[in-house]
Inverse folding.
């Protein structure tokens, strides 16, 4: 019986080393999991920041359309991109502008020159003039379609906004 106890004791000599190695491997796996998760979250956060900057830049393009006001101002002379394919998925020849009052020079926007929409004009209630002889001139809003594009070159993101613009009231018909 004495020899069996000695054999058992001799077989347990490396157990502490084995337990320590297993514990280290478990801690290493947990550490790698935490690093992997945080790296993924950094990429996601970076992408979100880039998309937000691109949307803000595209909104600056919509503001430009509203500030320029009249259809005769929506030309290349006022930094609009005037091309029939402007806004298409593979179109890249935009006239890029910097966002006003921004310190980020990597955020830019472009605006396609608005085109008269294929949709009918919208009537403007209360804007009708009646003349002598029963004739009436109706007024409404002309519809224009355009695309505002924003991009952030630092984050390699780009966003397009298709926008409908109403201009008026203008005479749209009468009898």
């Amino acid at each position: 019986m004495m020899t069996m106890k000695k054999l058992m004791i001799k077989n347990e000599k490396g157990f502490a080393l084995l337990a320590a190695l297993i514990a280290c491997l478990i801690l290493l796996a947990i550490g790698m999991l935490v690093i992997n998760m945080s790296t993924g979250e950094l990429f996601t956060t970076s992408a979100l920041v880039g998309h937000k900057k691109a949307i803000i830049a595209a909104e600056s393009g919509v503001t430009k359309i509203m500030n320029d006001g009249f259809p005769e101002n929506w030309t290349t002379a006022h930094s609009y991109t005037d091309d029939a394919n402007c806004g298409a998925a593979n179109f890249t020849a935009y006239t890029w502008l910097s966002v006003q009052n921004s310190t980020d020079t990597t955020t830019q926007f472009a605006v396609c020159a608005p085109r008269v929409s294929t949709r009918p004009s919208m009537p403007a209630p209360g804007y009708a003039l009646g003349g002598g002889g029963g004739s009436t001139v109706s007024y409404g809003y002309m519809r224009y379609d355009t695309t505002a594009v924003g991009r952030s070159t630092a984050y390699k993101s780009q966003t397009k906004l298709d926008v409908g613009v109403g201009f008026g009231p203008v005479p749209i018909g009468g009898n």
